[in-house]
Amino acid sequence: MVTKQIKISSKNQITIPQTVLKKLGVGPGDAIQLNIEGQHAEILVAKRKQLSALDLGKKFKSHPKKVLSIKQINQAIVDGYKDLAGKNR
To answer: What is the pLDDT of residue 64?
Structure first.
């Protein structure tokens, strides 16, 4: 369980701490829902933004300078799994 106390600004705004956002798995473009009953408030993840392939590509800071073949890409995947298997031993 994550418990955080946050303050309300002079403009009646709150900032949700990064640790809470990470725990909920939400970020920019996502929606949250507040359920209020008496003095209790519950935060729920309402809707996550669907990323397009273009949005996903923008998350990478660089791209390969040369074009790779499908065979080279598949080999890189195999090599990556081999590296992971070696670390899990």
So the answer is: 63
